[in-house]
Specification:
The protein starts with a helix and ends with a helix. It has one domain. It has five helices and no strands. This is Transposase DDE domain-containing protein.
Length: 85
Amino acid sequence: MRWTVSFVRVFSPSRAVNEDADDLDHLRKDSAFKIACGRLPDTGNDLCSQPTMSRWENAPTLREIMKLGGVLLDLYCAGIDTLTS
């Protein structure tokens, strides 16, 4: 899945897709676009849509996930302390 999303983003300027990827909703079934991304034109699964592309581009990095996990652990421990006091 991740490679396909990357291919869609790389090849989208060739199909005159604007930066916010709104046109991907219309191009996800496009035969030529599917071939360029390594899918069969008629029987291959459709490509990703604009919301999928947005989630992928805005996904947190591993470092951000680790920081969030630390904060959540601190909040949990602080909550346990208040409950036991």
